Amino acid sequence: MKSLFKFLVLQLIILLSLSFICTYAQSLTVEFNKPCYDLDDVVKMKICYDSDTSIAIEVWGPSNNLVWIHEESSFTAGCHEYSFKLQSTIPEGIYTAYVAVLNEVPQKFTFKVYRPRLEIVSISPSTIKGLPGTAVNLIINVSNKGASGNFILRLKRGVTTITEKSLYVNALSSTITYISLTLPSTSGVYTYTLEAYNVKYGVVDDSKSISVEVVRPTVTIAPTPPPPPVIVTTPPPPPPITPTTTSPLIPGGIKSFIADLTDVTTPEGLTTRDVVIEIPEYRVKIEIPANTLIQYMGRPLRNLTITIMGVKPPSPATQVPVGPIINLGPSGTTFNKPITVQVPYSPGAVPEGMVVMLAYYDEVKKSWMPLPTISVDRVRGVVIGQVTHFTLFAAVAFRIVTPVTVVTTTTIPTVVTSPITTTVVTTTTTPITKTVTQTKTSITTSIAVRTTTKTTTVTSPPVTVTATKVSTVTETSTVTSPVTSVLTTTVTQKVPVVPAWVYPVIAVLIVLIVIALIIGYVVWGRRRV
């Protein structure tokens, strides 16, 4: 009985040893130099292995087409670089590189091949309304769905190109840029088209339309010579409403004002005439057109409040308030048509390279959101725009800059816990002189002739993926959203290689252990009898 126990312990030690060998088996590493390749790019592969061996490489396309094959019978331990050129006629998609070392299971590695293709994600503002000759900056968010490339953004009216801008976008990345548009000198409605032109392939990858309305103020000129004088007595226009001063109504306020709207609104909340509310000492003015419905929480509003704030809310560094923060309230008051709001600002406080616009504060995003701005008067130091609700308002300088690229490299190890399952049965026959056949199921080389039939399943341990992230940050105009980081990722796939003889040996040992257990059970039963 003791001999049987010793035999079982020995078998257990052997199993543990084989498990240790499998765990620390030699590893094969393949690294590609780009996250995505163009149709005629040169693909560079760095292959690393821990010992001297023979190696074979095959690259297959998405249409099951053989792209490249290489064999090396004297691969020395360490890392070696291999390269091959892609043809311009190959299909786009995911390509697979099969790498096999002598007497081991081939490993599979993938890379992407897509031509540069620029998509226009958004344009802000998408509709424009302004005076003739007004300059408007269009904030454009674009995304490259393929390899790195050069593009031209063209702004057209009909078939005429108004302006254009060249830019380079890295592979599989996004960026934000801007184009300046000067509105036409005549009033009317115009339609512009923004095109993303691919320089290398000479095609338009994407396009979007922009609606522009140009309005001109009406000027009445008295006829000359005038007719016989007729004295017409017209009542003077109603004076602006002067709010009454009160103590700050909101925490953080310096001074508050209350305007009574009872005499200029109906019981339903409609204004009976054009209403002007003005605080000259702070250069704050509110103009509400006649027949405007003013409501707060679904009810007519009778008292309007204006608070000069002494505290600025937090906001990104690319957004600089250049005047006092004005709290128009109650916050949440709505209007059924746009009203005009004038707020003060200091022209000398505007940083160089930034654009001043009227903006409201978004409490959720913790940032200032630009509003349609009618004019920026540097002489009087005021910004005039249109709003449809009450909240925090201010004149804010937004950064508009030419893209500047800053490259940083960071190595980020990441463990992917999902196992890789490879289905392969390898049969070694008589060596044959090197033959390349356009069939993926037969690979004949001078290293080892093997016939591969995908019938059995071998599940390898979880894959460890080491990613080297080269992030290209493009700093651009960020009126509506922050600058998007441009990521270029070089992916390294690392797969442990288990020698082919390990699995048969483990199977034989398991069978022996089962037989030993059966014999031990029989012997123990006879001794009891």
Features:
529 residues, mainly beta, Immunoglobulin-like, Chondroitinase Ac, Chain A, domain 3, eight-stranded antiparallel β-sheet, seven-stranded antiparallel β-sheet, elongated
Low-confidence regions:
401-497
Proportion of residues in β-strands: over 45%
Q: Give the radius of gyration.
A: 37 Å
In DSSP terms, counting alpha (H) and pi (I) runs of 4 or more, how many helices? 2
CATH architecture of the domain at 244-399: Sandwich
| Total beta strands | 37
Summarize the main sheet. Answer: 8 strands, antiparallel
Provide the CATH top-level class of the domain at 244-399: Mainly Beta
Structural class per helix/strand content? mainly beta
Q: What is the general shape?
A: elongated
Q: How much is the average pLDDT? A: 78
